[in-house]
Amino acid sequence: MIENSSRSTPEGAGEAGGTDDRSGEVTATYKVTGMTCGHCEGAVSSELGELAGVSSVQAVAASGLVTVTSKAPLDEEAVRAAVDEAGYELVGQAG
Asked: Dihedral of CA 52/63/9/39: which sign?
């Protein structure tokens, strides 16, 4: 687990796009450009955390990766809109 995240994912969360075996939650990792600091991480985490079904968000400015855990797969356009609202750009789902 990476430190300095605004919100953290549960220990043992599934791989990107996978399902957490313990809770049935889905974890997806996205690439976001423009984040440079903790404030950026917080802004992205806050916006994504407001999407329906999201239980945790971990944004890491250094890598540009944002991991989102939710009750069901998220609509990429909803994720894109939330990242845009925070002032950053969603590149897409990280592979």
From this structure: negative
CA angle 32, 7, 33 (to 5 degrees): 10
| Confidence at 1, pLDDT banded by 50, 70, 90 | very low
**Cα(58)–Cα(44) distance, integer angstroms:** 9
CA distance 16 to 85: 23
pTM above 0.70, yes or no: yes
How far apart (Å, rounded) are the C-alpha atoms in residues 53 and 89?
22
* 8 Å CB contact between 58 and 6: yes
